[in-house]
Amino acid sequence: MVKRGKTSRLKRKPAPKFWPIHKKEKLWVVKPSSGPHSLKNCLSLTLVLRDLLGMTETRKESKTLLNHGKVLVNGKVVAHDDFPVGLMDVIAMPDASQYFRILPSHKGLTLCPISKEEANFKFARIDNKATVSNGIQLNLHDGTNLLIKTSESQNPKEDIYETYNILKLSLPNKDITGCIQLKEGNYVVITGGKNIGVKGKIVEIEKTVAKKRKNALVIVEDDKGTRCQTILNFVFTINEVNQPAAPQMETA
């Protein structure tokens, strides 16, 4: 009989390059389980606790720490050491007074220390939306869906959210507390491609004709005045123009 389905094992050599591991030190590495993020865009909690933060030395110690309910992901206790965490997820360890948000960097994904107050919310991008029988379903970048109930079946007044807008969600209930629109002049961070991790303001968004909107070209200018080009699918808005200071987004 031939084994079918995905394997739960992963060798270190084909693992994503940004993972903080030595490729030739050992043969195997903890593979993130199936969840809200794809393999190439996430880290397992063991890698976070052992290799990034240095809070544990072995996978067994990581499991013990998680089994005691000491680690929260997006406001909820997680006990699985292979749980995948990815872009904009919030990792909290209240007993150690340590709080982190996962952000893109020039190497891939990294942890950004945040305050206890900032750990009470997360940002999520609307990648798609659909009309269902009892409202509007918003599909977010982390694999979760939100249902916006509407009072009218056609042209509902509650339909104020557009794709690639950013929702500010309270944790752990994920109630919408704010919305950041995608437009020129807003402050963004690039989440993919060769310019991953670059932060700056949007200078221009290409008007799409005969091609998918996610592939529209976007020009981003950083604080030094350097401009780079990426696609809309790699743009994550973190602050609107003419708003107070943006949330803490400096990588560690």
Quick rundown:
By secondary structure, the protein is mainly beta. The protein is 7% helix and 36% strand. A five-stranded antiparallel β-sheet has the order 5-4-7-8-9, with no helix packed on it.
The succession of helices and strands, N to C, reads EEEHHEEEEEEEEEEEEEEEE
CATH architecture of the largest domain: Roll
CATH class of the largest domain: Alpha Beta
Question: Based on CA inertia axes, which overall geometry fits?
Answer: globular
| Biggest sheet architecture | 5 strands, antiparallel
Topology:
Layout (H helix, E strand, L loop, with lengths): L9 E2 L16 E2 L12 E3 H8 L6 H9 L4 E2 L2 E2 L6 E3 L3 E4 L4 E8 L2 E6 L7 E12 L2 E6 L4 E5 L16 E5 L5 E5 L6 E4 L8 E7 L11 E5 L5 E5 L3 E5 L13
Antiparallel strand pairs: 1-2, 3-6, 4-5, 4-7, 7-8, 8-9, 10-11, 10-13, 11-12, 13-14, 15-16, 15-19, 16-17, 17-18
